């Protein structure tokens, strides 16, 4: 993949659920549990800290 939009697991799961054909009498599935926290990428904490500091100015 190039530098375009990133496809997240959540987006892929939503796209799959929306495109799935359901029977009329079938009840929709309950919402999924919230995702577990993911370890930030290398340098992400520093980048976010710099962004917050710049926003305070």
TrEMBL record:
Residues 40-57 have a biased composition (Basic residues). Residues 1-57 are annotated as: Disordered. Residues 28-37 have a biased composition (Pro residues). Residues 13-25 have a biased composition (Basic and acidic residues). This is Uncharacterized protein. It comes from Actinoallomurus vinaceus.
